[in-house]
């Protein structure tokens, strides 16, 4: 089973990611700070780290994970609310493979899930598609998962 470590300081985003990824069949580990993230990444060796980043301040955490022998090969995808021209290049140069802009809307979440599924999804869960989770203000009637 694919394990995803999430470090996110905004509770709603953390809950959205945790619930949606769990519904998709991923194992989710939550972290609240850099020290815990580094510790959990080294002990649990997740398949993916979703890391809250404040460019340029948080790029050091990406570097920490990428230079540790135990965690160097774990893909890191950035979660960021601060996005300026050139930030994508900074994230990629620091070692992130992907990034997700916050706040996360329905379309961004669907694209994010598609990318994660392409990289990790087992055939056991391929029958699920997602429309919206915790997006009541955007789509009040949305269902979390529907069968194709």
How would you summarize this macromolecular structure in one to three sentences?
With 148 residues, this protein is of the alpha/beta class. It has helices at 11-23, 34-44, 59-67, 87-94, 106-120, and strands at 3-7, 27-31, 48-52, 76-80, 96-101, 128-130, 145-147.
Mind explaining what this structure looks like?
The chain is α/β, with parallel strands linked by helices. The chain has 5 helices and 7 strands, in the order βαβαβαβαβαββ. It has a 5-stranded parallel beta sheet with strand order 2-1-3-4-5, sandwiched between helices. The chain starts with a strand and ends with a strand.
Low-confidence stretches: 123-148
As laid out across the biggest beta sheet, the strand order is 2-1-3-4-5
> Roughly how many Å apart are the termini?
22 Å
List the secondary-structure elements in sequence, H or E.
Answer: EHEHEHEHEHEE
Number of helices: 5
Strand tally is: 7
What spatial form do the alpha-carbon principal axes imply? globular
What is the share of helical residues?
Answer: 25-40%
What is the CA-atom radius of gyration, in angstroms? 15 Å
Largest sheet: 5 strands, parallel
Overall SS class: alpha/beta
Q: What share of the residues does DSSP label as strand, in percent? A: 15-25%
* Mean pLDDT reading: 79
Which tags fit this structure?
148 residues; alpha/beta; five-stranded parallel sheet; 5 helices; 7 strands; globular
Question: Topology, pairings included?
Answer:
Elements: E1 3-7, H1 11-23, E2 27-31, H2 34-44, E3 48-52, H3 59-67, E4 76-80, H4 87-94, E5 96-101, H5 106-120, E6 128-130, E7 145-147
Parallel strand pairs: 1-2, 1-3, 3-4, 4-5
Antiparallel strand pairs: 6-7
